[in-house]
Amino acid sequence: PVPEKDLPVELPYIKKYQPTGTGESPLANIPKWVNTKCPRCGGKAKRETDTMPNWAGSNWYFIRYTDPKNDKFLADSEKLKYWMPVDWYNGGMEHTTLHLLYSRFIYKFLFDIGVVPQSEPYQKRTTHGVVLAEDGRKMSKSFGNVINPDQIIKEYGTDTLRIYEMFMGPFDQAIAWSIQGVKGVRRFLEKVWKLTLNGEGGKSSERVIRAIHKLNKKIDEDLEATKFNTLIAAFMEFANFWQENKKETSKDIIERFLILLAPMAPHISEELWQNLGHKKSIFLEKWP
């Protein structure tokens, strides 16, 4: 093995790596780097070129979160028992196969040698889809179809972007971007703004009370199931109902609506909350 004083072994600086044609790593084509001396006997030796890629560490990095300052072990056994396995691990759909395969493989190896206390790293694993360009292709500078989120925020607002990304389609599927969809979400938030500031403040009817309870239940269920698109659709449906029944919608119903909306649209919810006369942040309120 390489002596600790000689670590890390740095890769050579070359203009480009050419394939070997033999299945070996491109490093095998660089004799000045490959040929070295044995650290023990001083004889001729060759460096191993089939090394792990830099993403190998991403397969088990989460273990270190349980005990990040431990300078003797990967993590303390008691802390591993307390924190592991991960409750919910979400990642991109492009990593579902290999990342999940190697992540579980490494964790099971660590379990077999007694480093971790469980055989599985996660209790729940989900994936999210990717946002495609409006033409349905993957966003790429070469295609000239990249969406700049900063520009969307500047023109339509942060909450509009947040809500649209949740509303545009199922969480686990690839969905094409639509500027018309962004504009539709902006209209929804403008409607909420106007309805809140122009609220009648009367006593709520039974059907309005039932509607807010129905919305509350829907939000709770869809948040847990990551059904963000149907969750946002429920908010929009209630806003339309609210507009038709303004005189039957009391201030406490409006406040409850804003508390439910706050995790999805924090900025407008906070501002409207203050406009209703509240001094403390809406995020200090109890979830209904």
Detailed description of the structure:
- This protein has three domains: 43 residues, no CATH class; 75 residues, no CATH class; 153 residues, Orthogonal Bundle (Isoleucyl-tRNA Synthetase, Domain 1), CATH 1.10.730.10.
- The chain has ten helices and six strands; from the N terminus they run αββαβαββααβααααα.
- It has a two-stranded antiparallel sheet with strand order 1-2.
- The mean pLDDT is 92.
- A hairpin with a 6-residue loop joins strand 1 and strand 2.
- By secondary structure, the protein is mostly helical.
- Helix 6 packs across helix 8.
Describe the secondary-structure layout.
Blueprint: H1 31-34, E1 35-37, E2 44-46, H2 77-83, E3 89-92, H3 98-112, E4 125-128, E5 131-132, H4 149-156, H5 158-167, E6 175-176, H6 179-197, H7 206-224, H8 228-244, H9 251-261, H10 266-275
Parallel strand pairs: 3-4, 5-6
Antiparallel strand pairs: 1-2
Main sheet: strand order: 1-2
Under the CATH scheme, the architecture of the largest domain is Orthogonal Bundle
Class inferred from helices and paired strands:
mainly alpha
Number of strands: 6
What is the name of the CATH superfamily of the largest domain?
A: Isoleucyl-tRNA Synthetase, Domain 1
Low-confidence stretches: none
Query: In the CATH scheme, what's the topology name of the largest domain?
Result: Isoleucyl-tRNA Synthetase, Domain 1
In the CATH scheme, the class of the largest domain would be: Mainly Alpha
% residues in beta strands: 5-15%
Helix run count: 10
Report the sheet with the most strands, covering strand number, pairing sense and barrel closure: 2 strands, antiparallel
Q: Round the mean pLDDT to the nearest integer and report it.
A: 92
Succession of helices and strands: HEEHEHEEHHEHHHHH
Large-scale geometry:
elongated
Q: Kindly, what is the distance between the CA atoms of the first and last residues, rounded to a whole number of angstroms?
A: 60 Å
Question: Into how many domains do the coordinates divide?
Answer: 3
Rounded to the nearest angstrom, the radius of gyration is: 27 Å
How much helicity do the residues have?
40-55%
